[in-house]
Structures are given as structure tokens and as C-alpha cells.
């Protein structure tokens, strides 16, 4: 392979606003090149780099396949551990990335990010360009080929295909599993081979790409499109005998491994071979006779009468489609997607429609079949496979085939007894026809694969509650996912069924749609019920649904219909999945992670993921964020099942386990946020539940954001259940997250709820009063904040907790500073420093020094304050407390501005912004920007002041910070 090196170097470092950072740096320059079209490899200049362990090579392969785009840590964990990653998985990924990073840049320090393998939050990306990676060179050459014609296009294809040494990431798969993205890159190769063959045949220079075609055909022996092109290429190169031998080999492979006959492309290629020199006329037509065997058996092996078919049922083609629904509504986007697939360049033979129970799969499939029926003049076949009925009711493939063969005119005595023989006869008949086959309620791929035409122009439309994974297998099969109706479609459905009544009660219609969760089945049942009871108005129907409070009983007589539909999927579950389904409504929110599911069910994480996958196939949905959710009506059904089948003790234990998971996880998540006052370590779970671990601040903040609703719900519910420890521990764990995201009202509400549920625990009450004071401070309710602090100080004094008393004194100093009572602030801060120094709490004592410095500066003693600020910053840097460093930098900058040292002030303010941005402290970034704006305003530069204030507003967008109002007032008065 020709390797072209790329110079990879660090670009100058810039701040978030595009200005050069104070210390630009440029690292060493290295010439690196990479290869992934085969075993993954890398070079520095002409020297190959040792890429280390299999896991490190897998990580590099994923980064290379993304070709410079980001790969999340979660994706890398899934790549390395398919089903059961260890608790330290994220750390292992970071360690592997660090090793790779230093192999690419050997002089790199341990914690430096370097310029090649770059981290951005919870994602990594590899800096590569079009000449440093063989995949990008391949894509460029293919694009040049597609833009050319004749022999030059073939040359581009030849050069592109010569870059391939094996399958993408060859040698890295384990247990037969190959990552889908690696498979997709292989797919690009095979598409290029097909295009190259077509171009070479047109240009008459097939010898240029014949080696690449041979190799690709060896890799994909069952790909009929590739194999047909191999036959044509061999014939064009004068190797007709070899081509005929290759066809015989392909025909046997398809029969032995798939039980199918060659498709139209292969047969056409074979026919072109037979046409050569008039050989076809000597041998007769190559067309497969209806009824001829397609699974490798001799004609004589068919039962008597099977070969007597001659144009069976041509006079009266079967028309078995059920009637189209008279009130069919919406789904225009899915109908358009189906039409686009059928009109596309690649041949579509099967559409598999999946979705949850009651979403309207059968109704949609029937409607779509009627829309398409005219394209298939040889008739329509239909079978309800009853895949989710009781086991003895499920239609077997043999039973379905027997019915289809009867409909196609095969005498019962002539139908073979063996399944593969039935399938072969069925495909032979359909090979010469264009028919539409509707397969409803399929359980899995095994139930329908024998019912698919092997060749010809027929189309299969199948429905299933599961995402049938086998659809990814054969060419020409495509899934179509049916989701809930949109609000507009749901309203249209009710209007079409109920007429003018919907216009007279729009609010009731909205409530019905909400209570039905936009599920077509539920909406149809409500409409039918309303029509059947003329005296029942739509507001009355909406009222009955609301009174049921999410229970299925609100649907009246239709309750049984909903239960019946849902029960088909429930009965198909394994016992473990059925138990988990019944427990899921006990989770306090509609969406949950695999870890929370494991705690709820008392399961290992691996088992929980397996059961969720089983449920997700038909009863749950997994959004893009990796969490799982259940439709409200299915949740109501699960509630009823749980109350019926599970005793109170088991349900209570499940709730306690999930509460323990969130209590322990919340404590672990607040640790990377570096709270100024450490929280008491929680007691272990009596149920053996462990919380999740976190790789750093960004991971913890993302978890808090995803779980905020769940955590606040648990604070309320745990209090009602008599679990005060869970309530106050979660509430306190949230306070730093609320502070950094400027959610001060939520902070006050959650801690206030917890305070009312702590009972007579004085230590917990003191901690909560202190936390509430912090919320009051940010909400500018300073007197109330002082009141809470005095209560906390009294309780801590009674308990003899001197460290906590010191923290309270620091908080009181902060409020006095805000009130401009600087001498009182110094008194509280000095008391805090004395208490905390005596207890060895360096961080708290440094916070007190910072408060003293601020008060001293406000009193006009600026040089004295500067010395204190510099000392405080040094102490915070030693402690690794970025919040403390950023706060000190902000006040140091303010003090420089007070003595008109503008260069130092602006540089230090920018340092404070960078520090706070590193810890994602939105509110503190805005505070610094406000200070910068105030400085420019005081110095007569309203344009710069307005720019800084507007940036501060942008930082606070979507928050409830009182600072927003103050900034807007500034902007108003400076217009």
C-alpha cells in the first residue's frame, strides 16, 4: 500500500470567543499515517507503530472508521464490552486512549491531550486528513471515478480497490461479532466493486479490475449482485468455461445454505453465457420452469403431480388482501418512505413494519398493500401468522406455505411434506410472477424467511411487534418503523370518526389525545365508544379518562380490548422479562437506564440489559440517549399486572432497591463537583445495591441532568414512605449541580421538601438549613438566608460540630458581603478561619481568607487585598479546587480594575472565565461577564459593556437566575 504522510501539529490555543489565549503553545510535529482497510496499522514516517493490545487497536479502528468525527466514551465501552462492562470501563477506555496518544506523540506528558487524539468532553476524535488515512483516500478515488467515465474511471476504481488488504479491522472480531460500522465500511468496498465492474464492462477493460472482483466475490459468496458481475467479467475476459463453473458453484451454495434458487441478476448473467455463439439456441430456454426444484434436488424427487403445473391459476389470480380501513389516517411520511424504497436504484423485495402493540401496524400494512396492489398484476396472498398468540395458535411456516401453494393452484397431494421442498416449489412458481404477499403478526425472522420469494418481481409486506434483526441479512429487505401518531394525525383520526363533535369541544379532544398517548388503537376505541353512546359527550369521555388517573379502566368497555392486545406481547415474554415488565412502573419516572433497571429488578447489569432487549423488541422504546421508556398505556397495563401477580413485599423491596441506587449514585456524582462542604458518606444498601461510578465532572453533570426529574421525585416519595435518609442525602447531593446550572428555585424547593421529611435528625436538619441558605443567597433573599444559617449554627453548636460551624460562619460572611456590611463580614470570616484552621480544614480556611480579602478591598485597602487574593489563589491551586481558583481570579481582576491596572484586570478576568468554563459553572461565568460589563460601563464604553452583558445573558439562557433581570435592566438603561 502506498502511504502518504500527514503533518499533524497542535494549532494555536484559542479561548471560547476566538481570541488568543494568554499562553499559545505549539507541540512537536510528527508525520503519521494510518490504515484500516484490512488489519489496523499506523506509521510514523517509515516506521510502523506498535498499537498495543486488541482493545487499543479496536479503539483506534473505531476512531479511524469515523474518519475524524467524534466517538463517545459510551460507544467505546460498548465496543470493548458488548454486554457486561466492568464498573471501571470508562477509566479503562481513558487509559487505553492515553497509551495510544503517547504512541502517536512519544514526548507527550502523562496528562497532556496532545494534538492527534483529541478529547472533547465525553468524546474522542482522531485528527486525520485525506492523505493520512487509506479509507479517506479510497473514498476520494471512488468519488473521482464516479465523476469520470471510460477507462479513466476504471483506473480510479482500480487504484481505490488496490488499497484494500482484507476486511475492515480484520483480526479484531471476537466470537464472530463484527461491529456494524466496520461492516458498513466493507459495504463501501463491495459497492465500489460492483460499480467498477459495470464501468469496466462498458469501457472494455475488465482485466483491470478482475482481481478485485474475484477477491470480493470470495469474501461474499452469497451476494448475488457481486457473483453475477463476476460471471460477466469472466466472460468478457474470455473465460466463459470458468464463468459457467462459477455459476454452478453459486447455484449449489444458494440451495444448500439458503434453500433458494438464483435470482434474476444471476439468471440473466447465466443466460448471457448461454447466448454466446448461439449456445442458448442449441440448449433451449434457460428459464426455470414453474415447479422446478430450487434447492438442489432432482426433478424426480418431487411428489407426483408437482411438475404438472403449467401457468397455475393465471386465469384467476388470488386476491386475498383484507379490506382497507375506511378511516385510515396519517402515516404519509412512512407511505412516502415505502414508495421511495420501491422506486430506488436497489431492488426492494421485503418491507417489514414494526412497532409497539396498538400502533396500527396491520391497518397500515393493509392500506399500503392496497396502494401498491396495481403494481403486482399476478395477485395478492395474505396470512396472519399469529406470532404473538399462544404457542399452539402460531401459524408455522409449513402451514402458511401449504395455504399459499393451494392458492397458487398446486393440488394438495402435490404439495411436498418437507419445509425446504415446499419453499423451493413456492419460489419456483413466484419466480415468473409479480405478486404482493402480506404477512401479518410475524414473531421472528425464522417464521417468515421461508415465505420470501427468492427471485422475480414480487413484494412482501410483513408486520411484527419486534424489530426483526434478520431483516439486515438478505439483500432487498428493509425495516419500516411505525411510531405513535403526531398530535395532528391523532386529531384527524378523531375528526374523521366523530365529525363535527370534535370542533365543538377542542379542549376535550386535546385531553383525549393526551390520555390515549397518541396510540391509534386507544383513540379508535374511544371514538367507537363515543359513537356507540350518543348521549356521552366528548368532555364527559375526557372526564372519565382523567378520573381513571392513567388506569385502563378509564376506557370503559374498551378496557378489555386494550388488555387483550397488550396481553399478546406480554404472554410471549420469558418469566424474567414478564416479572421485570410488572416492576417497571415502580420506577418514579417514565424513562430509566439499564443500571436503574438492574437495581429495580435485583439483577446483574448484564441480565438487566438482556431483559430490556427482550422487552424493547415489543413493549419498550430505547431513545438515542440509551435510556428506556414505556408508553403510558402499557405502563398502566403493567401496573395492573403487578398489583395482581406480585405481593406487597416484593414491590416494596423493588422500590427500596431503586431508591438505594439513586441515593448512592447521587453521592458518588457530587464528589467530582468538588463541593466546599463534604457530605456524610451514606450507609451501604441493605439489599446489596451499589451506585454507579463516574469518570469525572462532565460525566457527573451529564448524569444529574439526565436524572434530575427522577431524583427530585424520589426526594418527595421517599419522605412519604418514611425514608428520611434517602430524602435528605439526595437533596444535598443535588445542591452543587443546582448551583452550577443556576437552578436556584428548584434547589430551594427540593431542599425545602426534604427538610419537612427529616423528622428529628438534628444533623440532617442543620445541613439542610445551611443548604437552603445557599439557595436563598442566590435568589437574593438574604434575610431568609441568614435565618436558616442561624438555625444551622445553633444545631451544629449543640452537636459540637466545629467544622460545620466554620462553614456556617463563612456563609454568613458571604451574605454580609452582599449586604455591604464589610466589617461584620470580616468578623464572620475570621471566626470561620479560626475554627477551620484548628480542625485542619485548609479549603474552608482559604475560603474564609478569600472573604476577608474581598471585604478588605471594598473598604479601600486594595494592595492589602491583592496580597490576600494571591495567597488564596495559591492555596486553591494546591488543593485542585477550580471553583475556588476561578472565584479568586474574578475578585483579583476586580481589584486590579479598582486600581486602574487594566491589562492585569482583563487578563485575569479572562482566566476566570476559562477556569469556570472548564468546570461548566454557567452562573459564575455570567457573574464574571457582568463584572466586565460593569467595568466598561463605568469607564464610558457602553458598546463593550453591552457586549459583555449580552454574553452573560446567553450563558444564563433557560435558567431561573435573578441575575437575568438585573442584566436586562443594565441593558435597558444603557441603550
UniProtKB/TrEMBL annotation:
It comes from the Bacteria. PANTHER family: TRANSCRIPTIONAL REGULATOR REDD, TRANSCRIPTIONAL REGULATOR REDD-RELATED. InterPro entries: AfsR-DnrI-RedD_regulator, BTAD, OmpR/PhoB-type_DNA-bd, P-loop_NTPase, Sig_transdc_resp-reg_C-effctor, TPR-like_helical_dom_sf, WH-like_DNA-bd_sf. The lineage of its organism: Bacteria, Bacillati, Actinomycetota, Actinomycetes, Micromonosporales. CDD domains: BTAD. Keywords: DNA-binding, Transcription, Transcription regulation. The keyword Signal does not apply. The keyword Transcription applies. It comes from Micromonospora vulcania. Residues 23-128 bind DNA. This is BTAD domain-containing putative transcriptional regulator. Transmembrane segments: none annotated. Residues 23-128 form the OmpR/PhoB-type domain. Residues 274-327 are annotated as: Disordered. Pfam families: BTAD (PF03704), Trans_reg_C (PF00486). Belongs to the AfsR/DnrI/RedD regulatory family.
Amino acid at each position: 500500500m502506498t502511504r502518504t504522510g500527514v503533518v499533524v501539529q497542535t494549532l494555536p490555543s484559542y479561548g471560547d470567543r476566538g481570541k488568543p489565549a494568554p499562553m499559545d503553545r505549539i507541540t512537536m510535529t510528527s508525520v503519521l499515517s494510518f490504515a484500516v482497510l484490512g488489519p489496523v496499522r499506523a506509521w510514523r514516517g517509515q516506521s510502523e507503530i506498535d498499537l498495543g493490545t486488541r482493545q487499543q487497536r479496536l479503539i483506534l479502528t473505531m476512531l479511524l472508521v469515523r474518519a475524524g468525527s467524534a466517538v463517545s466514551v459510551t460507544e467505546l465501552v460498548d465496543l470493548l464490552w458488548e454486554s457486561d462492562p466492568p464498573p471501571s470501563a470508562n477509566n479503562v477506555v481513558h487509559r487505553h486512549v492515553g497509551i495510544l496518544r503517547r504512541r502517536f506523540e512519544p514526548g507527550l506528558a502523562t496528562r497532556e491531550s496532545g494534538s492527534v487524539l483529541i478529547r472533547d468532553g465525553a468524546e474522542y476524535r482522531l485528527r486525520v486528513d485525506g492523505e493520512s488515512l487509506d479509507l479517506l483516500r479510497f473514498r476520494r478515488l471512488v468519488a473521482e471515478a464516479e465523476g469520470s467515465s471510460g477507462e479513466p474511471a476504471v483506473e480510479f476504481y482500480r487504484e481505490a480497490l488496490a488499497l484494500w488488504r482484507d476486511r475492515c479491522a480484520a483480526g479484531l472480531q471476537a466470537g464472530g461479532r463484527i461491529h456494524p460500522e466496520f461492516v458498513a465500511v466493507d459495504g463501501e468496498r463491495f459497492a465500489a466493486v460492483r460499480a467498477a465492474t459495470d464501468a469496466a464492462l462498458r469501457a472494455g477493460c475488465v482485466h483491470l479490475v478482475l482481481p478485485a472482483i474475484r477477491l470480493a466475490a470470495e469474501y461474499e459468496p452469497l451476494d448475488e449482485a457481486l457473483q453475477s458481475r463476476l460471471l460477466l467479467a469472466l466472460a468478457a475476459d474470455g473465460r466463459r468455461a470458468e464463468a459457467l463453473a462459477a455459476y454452478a458453484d453459486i447455484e449449489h451454495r444458494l440451495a444448500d445454505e439458503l434453500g433458494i434458487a438464483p435470482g434474476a441478476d444471476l439468471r440473466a448473467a447465466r443466460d448471457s453465457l448461454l447466448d454466446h455463439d448461439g449456445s442458448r439456441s442449441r440448449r433451449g430456454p434457460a428459464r426455470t420452469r414453474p415447479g422446478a426444484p430450487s434447492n438442489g434436488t432432482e426433478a424426480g424427487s418431487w411428489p407426483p403431480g408437482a411438475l404438472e403445473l403449467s401457468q397455475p391459476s393465471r386465469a384467476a389470480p388470488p386476491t386475498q388482501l383484507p379490506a382497507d380501513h375506511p378511516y385510515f389516517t396519517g402515516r404519509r411520511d412512512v407511505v412516502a418512505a415505502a414508495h421511495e424504497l420501491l422506486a430506488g436504484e436497489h431492488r426492494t423485495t421485503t418491507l417489514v413494519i414494526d412497532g409497539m402493540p396498538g400502533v396500527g401496524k396491520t391497518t397500515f400494512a393493509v392500506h399500503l398493500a392496497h396502494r401498491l396492489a396495481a403494481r403486482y398484476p399476478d395477485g395478492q396472498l395474505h396470512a396472519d401468522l399469529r406470532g404473538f398468540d399462544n404457542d399452539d395458535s402460531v401459524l408455522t411456516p409449513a402451514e402458511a406455505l401449504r395455504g399459499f401453494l393451494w392458492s397458487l393452484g398446486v393440488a394438495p397431494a402435490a404439495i411436498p411434506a418437507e419445509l425446504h421442498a415446499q419453499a423451493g416449489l413456492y419460489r419456483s412458481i413466484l419466480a415468473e410472477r409479480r405478486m404482493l404477499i402480506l404477512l401479518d403478526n410475524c414473531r421472528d425472522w425464522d417464521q417468515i424467511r421461508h415465505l420470501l420469494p427468492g427471485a422475480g418481481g414480487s413484494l412482501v409486506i410483513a408486520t411484527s411487534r419486534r424489530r426483526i434483526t434478520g431483516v439486515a441479512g438478505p439483500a432487498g429487505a428493509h425495516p419500516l418503523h411505525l411510531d405513535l401518531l403526531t398530535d395532528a394525525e391523532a386529531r384527524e383520526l378523531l375528526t374523521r370518526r366523530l365529525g363535527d363533535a370534535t370542533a365543538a369541544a377542542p379542549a376535550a379532544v386535546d385531553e383525549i389525545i393526551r390520555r390515549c398517548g397518541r396510540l391509534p388503537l386507544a383513540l379508535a376505541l374511544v371514538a367507537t365508544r363515543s359513537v356507540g353512546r350518543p348521549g356521552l359527550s366528548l368532555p364527559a369521555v375526557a372526564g372519565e379518562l382523567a378520573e381513571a388517573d392513567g388506569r385502563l379502566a378509564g376506557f370503559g368497555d374498551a378496557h378489555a380490548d386494550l388488555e387483550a392486545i397488550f396481553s399478546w406481547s406480554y404472554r410471549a415474554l420469558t418469566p424474567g422479562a414478564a416479572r421485570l415488565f410488572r416492576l417497571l412502573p415502580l420506577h418514579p419516572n417514565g424513562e430509566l437506564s439499564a443500571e436503574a433497571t438492574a437495581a429495580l429488578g435485583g439483577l446483574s447489569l448484564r441480565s438487566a440489559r438482556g431483559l430490556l432487549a427482550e422487552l424493547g423488541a415489543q413493549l419498550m422504546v430505547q431513545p438515542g440517549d440509551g435510556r428506556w421508556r414505556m408508553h403510558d398505556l402499557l405502563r398502566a397495563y403493567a401496573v395492573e399486572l403487578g398489583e395482581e401477580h406480585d405481593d406487597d413485599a416484593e414491590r416494596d423491596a423493588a422500590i427500596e432497591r431503586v431508591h438505594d441506587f439513586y441515593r448512592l449514585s447521587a453521592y458518588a456524582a457530587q464528589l467530582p463537583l468538588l463541593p466546599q462542604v463534604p457530605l456524610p458518606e451514606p450507609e451501604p444498601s441493605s439489599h446489596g445495591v451499589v451506585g454507579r461510578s463516574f469518570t469525572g465532572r462532565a460525566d457527573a453533570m451529564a448524569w444529574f441532568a439526565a436524572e434530575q426529574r427522577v431524583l427530585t421525585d424520589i426526594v418527595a416519595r421517599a419522605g412519604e414512605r418514611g425514608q428520611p435518609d434517602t430524602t435528605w442525602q439526595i437533596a444535598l447531593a443535588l445542591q452543587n449541580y443546582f448551583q452550577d446550572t443556576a437552578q436556584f428555585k428548584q434547589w430551594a424547593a427540593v431542599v425545602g421538601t426534604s427538610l419537612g421529611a427529616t423528622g428529628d435528625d438534628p444533623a440532617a436538619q442543620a445541613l439542610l438549613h445551611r443548604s437552603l441558605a445557599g439557595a436563598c443567597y442566590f435568589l437574593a433573599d438574604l434575610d431568609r438566608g441568614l435565618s436558616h444559617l442561624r438555625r444551622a449554627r445553633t444545631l451544629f453548636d449543640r452537636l459540637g460540630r466545629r467544622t460545620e460551624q466554620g462553614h456556617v460562619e463563612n456563609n454568613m460572611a458571604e451574605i454580609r458581603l452582599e449586604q455591604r456590611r464589610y466589617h461584620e463580614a470580616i468578623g464572620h470570616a475570621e471566626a470561620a478561619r479560626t475554627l477551620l484552621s484548628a480542625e485542619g480544614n485548609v479549603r474552608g480556611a482559604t475560603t474564609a481568607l478569600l472573604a476577608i480579602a474581598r471585604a478588605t478591598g471594598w473598604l479601600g485597602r486594595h494592595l492589602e487585598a491583592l496580597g490576600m487574593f494571591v495567597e488564596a489563589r495559591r492555596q486553591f491551586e494546591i488543593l485542585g479546587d477550580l471553583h475556588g481558583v476561578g472565584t479568586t481570579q474574578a475578585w483579583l481582576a476586580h481589584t486590579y480594575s479598582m486600581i486602574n491596572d487594566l491589562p492585569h484586570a482583563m487578563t485575569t478576568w479572562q482566566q476566570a472565565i476559562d477556569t469556570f468554563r472548564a468546570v461548566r459553572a454557567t452562573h459564575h461565568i455570567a457573574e464574571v461577564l457582568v463584572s466586565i460589563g460593569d467595568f466598561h460601563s463605568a469607564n464610558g464604553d457602553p458598546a463593550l459593556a453591552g457586549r459583555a452583558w449580552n454574553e452573560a445573558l446567553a450563558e444564563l439562557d433557560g435558567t431561573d437566575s435573578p441575575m437575568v433581570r438585573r442584566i436586562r435592566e443594565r441593558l435597558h438603561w444603557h441603550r
